[in-house]
Amino acid sequence: MDLLREVSGLNKVVVARHISADKTFPVAHNAINRTALCYSYSHQPDFESYFIALSPYIWVLWICGLAVLMATCILFVVTIRAAWQHWRQSSTNVTVVLAVYPIVASSAFLAIVLPRGRILAEAIAQEAVMIAMCHLYSMIITECGGPDQLIRRSSDARLETRVLPCCCWPCCLIPRPKLQKRSLVFMKCLVMQMPIIQALIYVVLLALLADDMMIYHQSFTYFQPFIAASILTGVWGVIMCVRMAETAGHRVRPRFLAVQLALIIVKVQSGFAKFLPELIEIPCVSSINPSVFINMIQNGVMLLEMLLLSIWAWRLYRVAPGKNLDRPQVVVAVLDDSIKPVDPKTMTGLENKSFNERYK
User: Fold this and answer.
1) What digits encode the pLDDT tens for the residues 211-243?
2) Cα angle: 16, vertex 18, 20; to 5 degrees
3) Would you place residue 32 in the very low, low, confident or very high pLDDT band (cuts 50, 70, 90)?
4) How many domains in the chain?
5) Per-residue pLDDT, 20
């Protein structure tokens, strides 16, 4: 073969005459590399690879997800307009609590569209739920008339500390102090630390993720006890507040359950989906690793769950506090059979006072 040799200093370049340097060659698909990427659970595909692997079904998923997200946002607007008529004193708190559903739904849709944005979407969703918990606590205290009025009404009542998650031994040994100012401050600190601690932890995790994904996966396990301790203590404070409000005669448990379910979906359900590929062997789907496919399904389910929770929130907040349209209160009067019937003619011209004195 005739070669063209060009010598430049000490470097020798040997090029075949019939080969052009401008010509590009197609990249060959290597089955071994594709298999390695498929079963690498720490690998997150880029948008182009993700789109090609799931085409044309990805369009159906995106359109359905966008429709559910728009329905959730519309329900949020409708619920806010109805809630502001009955919750004027807590309008800001109600808005933040109700905003958790469209925010979590938006984060789930972002994770469906961009697989590499899953960690960021998870951080946004979890922080939104933590902030909603804090505003739910403030809303309950405002509904009870504020800390001072709540303490004045409770007189010698005690704060119920033996509630979930501190209801079993040895947590049942926790004392129950009198409901005082410092008790409410302690309970408020338990609740308010949640968004602060969770934000700091996720800032560190996102920094590790930006540096190296393997370092993030190795370090994430060590952060789990701090995340769990922060959430459990915060939920403990909110449940104590809910029990205190119910003792004062306010019906706040359904509103707390609506936010608590969002927390369970964001943390427990997402965590289970994250560790599921490591527990069981799942084959690759459309040349993407199983963790990406499971997270896609989990985020799609989360979209539907946020829509259902939005519908429930609309039913809860469309009425005034403490009222429920589905269970109307019925007053039943029971009369003793021994009471003799009264002649209506004898009641003419008599005042209620004389009537009561006659038939006492």
Assistant:
1) 888 888 888 889 999 999 999 999 988 988 888
2) 90
3) very low
4) 1
5) 45
Inside any domain, residue 287: yes
Does residue 64 belong to any structural domain of this protein?
yes
Count Cβ atoms within 10 A of the Cβ of residue 340 and give its class: 0-12 exposed, 13-18 middle, 19 or more buried: exposed
Is residue 181 within 8 Å of 150, Cβ to Cβ? no
Does residue 330 belong to any structural domain of this protein? no
pLDDT, tens digit (0-9, with 9 covering 90-100), for 147-192: 888 777 776 777 777 777 766 666 667 777 777 788 888 888 999 9
Q: Which amino acid is at 336?
A: D
Burial label, 27 (beta-carbon count in 10 A; 0-12, 13-18, 19+): exposed
Q: How is residue 45 written in tokens?
A: 């595909």
Q: What is the CATH number of the domain that holds 249?
A: 1.20.1070
Q: How confident is the model at residue 321 (pLDDT cuts 50, 70, 90)?
A: confident
Whether the CB-CB separation of 88 and 95 falls below 8 Å is answered with no
What span, in angstroms and rounded, lies between the C-alpha atoms of 274 and 60?
A: 24
**In the prediction, which pLDDT does 19 show?**
46
Q: In whole angstroms, what is the distance from residue 251 CA to residue 287 CA?
A: 51
H-assigned helices in 40-145: 47-54, 57-83, 91-113, 118-143
139 burial via Cβ count (<10 Å: 0-12, 13-18, 19+): buried
Query: Does 350 reside within a domain?
Result: no
- Alpha-carbon distance 76 to 177, whole Å? 39
Length, in residues, of the chain: 360
3-state secondary structure of 7: strand
Domain span at residue 99 reads 44-317
